[in-house]
């Protein structure tokens, strides 16, 4: 067996199952799950129609690089969304959802023969980053979120010696679970560090289309273009239809950026067996070419957050995030695991303890004392969950 498998940590949901083993939720109340970030809004009809219309395409082997029509649709979307120009043939690759690509990208760019190969991650973070780093033979370093800056990652917590051994930096903006969006000056700092030390930046942007203010979140490629880095050197952005179009089961996304990195990534993928089905590719073209369903989806989230956040803010330390579909709430008493266990037992509402989404680094676990709430269910269900959370929280202070 690969000895690196022993370095992997249990996934947060696996740890939560162990922490709730034997716990019996209140049977008088229906179960409401805010713990998993799985979109629940209906998939757009245009995708279903495109899938049905292209069933005969299943008779052909797909190319790993994807059909030109898909790469061109992705490039055109980047142009409309971020005002940037990319070459569809050399700077775009379709992937089987951002999760698969975030993992396999590390296997492409990490050189484990170099001493102390390091991957830097935000903290808390999407655990795929850590698993990808460990299975690539690297070690991890973590930049904690900063509550004073709406939970943006504090990159200054990474010392110069660590940056000097860094080969890959994972950025998540908008962030999971905090919803923080990186501003342009922060991107400029990371690009300067990348130039100085030669590491690659993987920008996870799967939540980019769910936001609550008029200005759309800044993307990594957009930031690079604004800063005169139109070749996107040492930068690859990852995006997906899962959240944007409510189709997590489609497993469709794309990566874009540095052409040299994507050439190497394509070589890896031809052996990895990660070609996207022609059926999925053609449905994806329809999705990337349409914005009406994205606007409607975003409005549905805005309505939920506008209704739920003020209710919870009356009893919890919680505020509207920059973007994404999570609330990142501090709990009374500071014990996030005990709070989530009690909420499930007494009110049959599942939230995810924040400490499970982070690692202890720099002397603390930056997720401790907080819970992540995914507002993915219908509005009425989210409001019912909020009322139960309010009742439970008030009961703790009586």
TrEMBL record:
Signal peptide span: none
Superkingdom assignment: Bacteria
EC number: 2.6.1.11, 2.6.1.17
Transferase among keywords: yes
Enzyme class: transferase
Molecular-function GO terms, alphabetical: N2-acetyl-L-ornithine:2-oxoglutarate 5-aminotransferase activity; pyridoxal phosphate binding; succinyldiaminopimelate transaminase activity
Positions of the Aminotransferase class I/classII large domain: 32-389
UniProtKB keywords: Aminotransferase, Transferase
GO biological process: lysine biosynthetic process via diaminopimelate
Cofactor(s) needed for function: pyridoxal 5'-phosphate
InterPro entries the UniProt entry points to: Aminotransferase_I/II_large, DapC_beta/gammaproteobac, LL-DAP_aminotransferase, PyrdxlP-dep_Trfase, PyrdxlP-dep_Trfase_major, PyrdxlP-dep_Trfase_small
PANTHER family membership: AMINO ACID AMINOTRANSFERASE, L-GLUTAMINE--4-(METHYLSULFANYL)-2-OXOBUTANOATE AMINOTRANSFERASE
Protein's name in the database: Acetylornithine/succinyldiaminopimelate aminotransferase DapC
Native organism: Rubrivivax gelatinosus (strain NBRC 100245 / IL144)
């Amino acid at each position: 067996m690969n000895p690196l498998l022993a370095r992997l940590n249990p996934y947060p949901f696996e740890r939560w199952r162990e922490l709730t083993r034997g716990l019996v939720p209140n049977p008088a109340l229906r179960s409401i799950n805010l713990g998993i970030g799985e979109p629940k809004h209906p998939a757009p009809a245009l995708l279903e129609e495109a899938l049905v219309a292209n069933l005969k395409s299943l008779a052909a082997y797909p190319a790993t690089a994807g059909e030109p029509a898909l790469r061109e649709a992705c490039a055109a979307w980047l142009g409309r969304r971020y005002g940037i120009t990319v070459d569809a043939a050399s700077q775009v690759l379709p992937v089987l959802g951002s999760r698969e690509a975030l993992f396999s990208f590390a296997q492409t760019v990490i050189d484990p023969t170099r001493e102390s190969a390091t991957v830097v991650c935000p903290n808390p973070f999407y655990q795929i980053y850590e698993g990808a780093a460990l299975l690539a033979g690297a070690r991890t370093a973590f930049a904690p979120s900063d509550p004073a800056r709406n939970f943006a990652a504090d990159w200054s917590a990474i010392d110069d010696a660590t940056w000097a051994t860094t080969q890959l930096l994972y950025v998540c903006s908008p962030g999971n679970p905090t919803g923080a969006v990186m501003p342009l000056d922060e991107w400029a700092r990371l690009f300067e560090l990348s130039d100085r030390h030669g590491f690659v930046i993987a920008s996870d942007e799967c939540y980019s289309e769910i936001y609550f203010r008029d200005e759309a979140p800044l993307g990594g490629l957009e930031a690079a273009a604004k800063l005169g880095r139109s070749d996107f050197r040492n930068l690859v952005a990852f995006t997906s239809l899962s959240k944007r179009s409510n189709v997590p089961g489609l497993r469709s996304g794309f990566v874009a950026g540095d052409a040299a990195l994507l050439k190497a990534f394509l070589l890896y993928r031809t052996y990895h067996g990660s070609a996207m089905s022609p059926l999925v590719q053609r449905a994806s073209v329809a999705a990337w070419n349409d914005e009406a369903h994205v606007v409607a989806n975003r409005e549905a989230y805005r309505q939920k957050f506008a209704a739920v956040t003020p209710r919870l803010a009356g009893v919890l330390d919680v505020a509207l995030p920059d973007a994404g579909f999570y609330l990142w709430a501090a709990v009374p008493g500071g014990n996030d695991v005990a709070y989530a266990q009690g909420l499930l037992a007494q009110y049959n509402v599942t939230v995810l303890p924040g400490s499970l989404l982070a690692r202890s680094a720099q002397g603390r676990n930056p997720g401790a004392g907080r819970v992540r709430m995914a507002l993915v269910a219908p509005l009425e269900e989210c409001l019912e969950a909020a009322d139960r959370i309010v009742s439970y929280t008030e009961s703790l202070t009586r």
